[in-house]
Amino acid sequence: MIRPVVLYPAPVLNVKCRNITTVTDEHRTLAADMLETMRDENGVGLAAPQVGVDLQLAVIDVSHNPKCVSYFKVNGQDADMVAHMPIVFINPVVEGGKVKVTDEEGCLSFPRLRANIRRSAEVKVTYETLDGGKVTIETDGLLARAFQHEIDHLNGILFIQRMSAAAKLGLKRKLRDLMAEWAEDAEADDEDEA
Q1: 134 bridge partner residues
Q2: CA 17 to the chain's CA centroid
């Protein structure tokens, strides 16, 4: 089921999400819905707070771009990234590498807004799976960026908070204008459904 994506400035986007201690059928349904929603929105990642749920659960799928990473390891072993997509991860812990890179990012909770964000070029992410397993992934490129972006969401951190000070100054007017557009879009959607 496609769920509505929560737009900024919804309070749930600034909450540190709760850990999942026992996976239930509700969590599995939420994950499936999030994958469907992410694909419907043409995204590469989606975190639970973006659909209004404050749980440490997120999904990523970058299989459309198999060359977006230069390496991909699962539990210390080289692996085929595409074969491991989509990734559904719970209670993640991320370690970033020392090398930082700046690249453009967008966010489904900020339609039509893109910004250059500085992040670690490589990550090591350890997380739990829906079936109770524990996985460690080491990677770089778009997947590393997506992991960092989604894990930030789980900790109540938005990508606009990672912008440079100069970029934040320029963002205020643009964000105000976009928020007005989002409200108009929502009103039009409500009228279409009526």
Answers
A1: 128
A2: 13
Residue range 64-111, pLDDT digits in tens: 999 999 999 999 999 999 999 999 999 999 999 999 999 999 999 999
Whether residue 182 lies inside any domain: the answer is: no
Confirm whether 109 is domain-assigned. yes
Give the dihedral sign, CA 3/8/10/15.
Answer: positive
Is 150 among the residues known to form the active site?
yes
- Residue 76 inside a domain? The answer is yes
Q: Which of 36, 128, 150, 191 is catalytic?
A: 150
Rounded Cα distance, 66 and 26, in Å: 31
d(CA 6, CA 1): 15
CATH number at residue 41: 3.90.45.10
